[in-house]
């Protein structure tokens, strides 16, 4: 049987890069699709990798990037909106376009990345767009698999490395009292799940939520980071209303350090719901945050 070709939209991103690696290791040929597609640093000339330039907002680009593919993964992301680029464009219309064209092209499987808590009715424009995007994808391609990870960590991540920066301050601010519960998940475990879902064993479930082995309050994540880095700092509770004011003041900046959507999300638990697919179904034992800190943050001190 010939090698399956999987198109990874967002294949240069934090998750997408690991997905590409897992798929190549599992024996697939991979097409890396992004606006600025690059081959990964680990790639050998003999690896079955190709690149295609695509903007998920462009019908022709997407159709071309899907040509001849057997499977497709949508790991395209947008975390901060601009005037010319809205969550709606990427997470709803872009995702729907990809699903519709994949269905028309007869592509066998589609995995749509979303996030835990995705909900069209959310006050957060980001979370609402994710929820509407899921519905639009299922509408266009009924057998799509929706994958919702909790916050992801891994080497060179934005999550732990940003927290590590915060612990350089004399006082470390908390969102509220730091009690929001998270279930941080290793990016490689999520990438491996995608590879399993695209393998030869068919899965009945269509919705998966992926969280790590430990549910941790935001405060506990910070405490683990500080303990590993051997930094002792007092934690300072900061009311959410003040965070909202800070996000409002920061909103005119070109790359705001904090957005209203992020504040809303930090007030809501982000843990796996009962009754959906998870690592157990995929036969994956997820790794813990604590054990991964050295690889993610480098040497302590
Ligand atoms: N990171 C997390 O903790 C986390 C948690 C839960 C869910 N997720 C979800 O997981 C997925 C991947 O997230 P990530 O953190 O890996 O994202 P990321 O690192 O920001 O990567 C985004 C990827 O999308 C590509 N891209 C952006 N705009 C595009 C466009 N208009 N057309 C085509 N490609 C475009 C980027 O490449 P170019 O810029 O070259 O186009 C890049 O390859 C997203 O759906 C995200 O919401 C992430």
Task: Categorize the overall geometry.
Answer: globular
Strand order of the largest sheet: 3-2-1-4-5-6-11
Q: What is the CATH fold-level name of the domain at 5-150 and 185-211 and 272-284? A: Rossmann fold
Write the H/E string, N to C: EHEEHEHEHEEHEEEHEEHEHHHH
CATH homology-level superfamily of the domain at 5-150 and 185-211 and 272-284:
NAD(P)-binding Rossmann-like Domain
Measured distance between first and last alpha carbons: 52 Å
Strand content: 15-25%
Overall pLDDT metric: 96
| Major β-sheet annotation | 7 strands, parallel
As a whole number of angstroms, the C-alpha radius of gyration is: 19 Å
Structural class: alpha/beta
What does this entry look like structurally?
The mean pLDDT is 96. By secondary structure, this protein is of the alpha/beta class. The strands form four sheets. It has a seven-stranded parallel β-sheet with strand order 3-2-1-4-5-6-11, with helices on both faces. The chain has a two-stranded parallel ribbon with strand order 7-10. A two-stranded parallel sheet has the order 8-13. It has a domain at 5-150 and 185-211 and 272-284: Rossmann fold, CATH 3.40.50. It starts with a strand and ends with a helix. The chain has helices spanning 14-25, 59-66, 87-104, 125-140, 159-166, 187-197, 218-229, 240-250, 260-266, 279-282, 289-297, and strands at 5-9, 29-34, 49-53, 71-74, 109-113, 145-149, 152-153, 172-175, 181-182, 185-186, 207-210, 216-217, 235-238. Helix 1 links the parallel strand 1 and strand 2 (29-34). The protein is globular, with a radius of gyration of 19 Å. The chain binds NADP nicotinamide-adenine-dinucleotide phosphate (NAP). NADP nicotinamide-adenine-dinucleotide phosphate binds at residues 9-10, 12-16, 34-36, 54-57, 75-77, 90, 113, 115, 149, 151-152, 159.
């Amino acid at each position: 049987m010939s090698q399956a070709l999987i198109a990874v939209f967002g294949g240069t991103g934090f998750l997408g890069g690991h997905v590409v690696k897992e798929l190549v290791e599992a024996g697939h040929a991979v097409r890396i699709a992004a606006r600025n597609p690059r081959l990964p640093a680990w790639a050998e000339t003999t690896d079955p990798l190709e690149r295609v330039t695509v903007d998920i907002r462009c019908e022709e680009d997407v159709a071309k990037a899907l040509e001849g593919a057997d499977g497709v993964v949508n790991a395209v992301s947008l975390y901060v909106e601009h005037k010319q680029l809205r969550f709606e464009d990427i997470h709803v219309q872009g995702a729907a376009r990809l699903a519709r064209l994949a269905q028309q092209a007869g592509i066998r499987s589609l995995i749509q990345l979303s996030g835990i808590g995705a909900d069209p009715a959310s006050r957060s424009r980001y979370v609402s767009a994710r929820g509407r995007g899921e519905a639009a994808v299922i509408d266009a391609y009924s057998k799509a698999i929706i994958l919702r990870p909790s916050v992801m960590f891994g080497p060179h991540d934005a999550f732990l490395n940003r927290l590590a920066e915060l612990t350089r301050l004399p006082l470390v601010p908390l969102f509220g009292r730091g009690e929001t519960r998270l279930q941080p998940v290793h990016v490689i475990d999520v990438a491996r799940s995608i590879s399993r879902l695209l393998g030869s064993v068919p899965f009945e479930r269509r919705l998966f939520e992926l969280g790590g082995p430990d549910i941790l309050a935001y405060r506990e994540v910070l405490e683990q980071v500080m303990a590993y880095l051997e930094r002792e700092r007092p934690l300072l509770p900061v009311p959410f209303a003040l965070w909202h004011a800070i996000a409002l003041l920061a909103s005119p900046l070109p790359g705001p350090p904090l957005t209203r959507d992020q504040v809303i999300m930090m007030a809501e638990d982000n843990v796996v719901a009962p009754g959906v697919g998870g690592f157990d179904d995929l036969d994956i034992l997820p790794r813990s945050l604590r054990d991964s800190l050295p690889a993610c943050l480098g040497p302590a001190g």
